[in-house]
Amino acid sequence: MLTLNERRHFPCSPQRVFDVVADVERYPTFLPGVLSAKVTTVRPFCFQADLLMGYKIFREPYRCLVHLTPYESITVDYLEGPFESLKNTWHFQETKDGVEVAFLLAFAFRSSLLQGLASSFSAQIGQKMIAAFEGRVFRRG
Hints:
The chain is α+β, with helices and mostly antiparallel strands. It has helices spanning 14-22, 112-120, 122-137; strands spanning 2-10, 34-43, 46-55, 58-69, 73-80, 83-95, 98-109. Strands 1-7-6-5-4-3-2 form a seven-stranded antiparallel β-sheet. α1 (14-22) crosses α3. The chain is globular, with a radius of gyration of 15 Å.
């Protein structure tokens, strides 16, 4: 299993970062490797999403359930797709000058080929993901 743990301070409100992370349908516009995303079922503080990830010749759909605790945390439960397991959490802690964001992504692909590919880029994956969210948070307009 590959585990990516990142912590970042954002000089903005927890609401701003939370809103960007929770807006899954916009992921294809800024998050590398996400080709499409659609929210399919919405319930209070929870929604189901279907995503298509891709890298070079690989295209893999997956479904997840996203649990929202407004401005505090987002937890993603994996439902179906190419993973053996997937855990993704975001925690938002307000500070006097912004928000401390803790991000955890732990996953294992069923396919040894995909797992090997991901292993060779695991450090870059986490950094690129956080940088993409950071860019989206501070995007003007």
